[in-house]
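Incident log, support desk, overnight shift.

02:14 A customer reports that sequence design results differ from what the structure should imply. Their input is reproduced verbatim below. On-call engineer (initials T.W.) acknowledged and began investigating.
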């Protein structure tokens, strides 16, 4: 099972945010309700799956077999002060991800301050999961999370890993 180190997870979180923010509004994988934009500008070494800005969504998409997958269960980004880079964390009452009904390990990652969307510095925080490369075939990935403040995520991906 691929489990990024704390430093690697923080770097992947930064890359994920830059990837998500790079999409124009009409191809935004985070607001995508069907999965048709899941392939937006994917890097060559990892496949990012998008979270949501809350609520329920069901997506269907193909991913390349043989590539690692990195995804948020819940994540946030906030201002990154050089002297005290404090992420915006969420208190969670529920956070889980399953692949074909089997629980996936979650890791908390916090990034170092990074610049994106102009000169603003950000710090990313989140509970993430990472998947080893999947062999070709169909998969169901379910992501459920609820914060103490009432924010909820209910995402289902119908994935097909293709050679």
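02:41 Re-run completed on a clean worker. Output:
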């Amino acid at each position: 099972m691929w489990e990024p180190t704390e430093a690697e997870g923080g770097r992947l979180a930064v890359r994920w945010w830059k990837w998500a923010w790079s999409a124009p509004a009409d191809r935004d994988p985070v607001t995508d309700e069907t999965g048709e934009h899941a392939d937006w500008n994917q890097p060559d070494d990892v496949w990012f799956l998008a979270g949501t800005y809350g609520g329920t969504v069901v997506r269907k998409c193909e991913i390349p077999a043989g590539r690692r997958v990195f995804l948020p269960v819940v994540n946030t980004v906030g201002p990154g002060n050089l002297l005290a880079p404090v992420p915006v964390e969420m208190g969670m009452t529920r956070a889980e991800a399953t692949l074909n009904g089997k629980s996936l390990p979650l890791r908390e990652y916090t990034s170092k301050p990074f610049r994106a969307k102009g000169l603003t510095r950000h710090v990313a925080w989140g509970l993430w999961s990472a998947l080893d490369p999947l062999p070709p075939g169909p998969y169901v990935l379910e992501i459920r999370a609820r914060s103490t403040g009432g924010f909820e995520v209910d995402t289902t991906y119908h994935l097909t890993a293709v050679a």
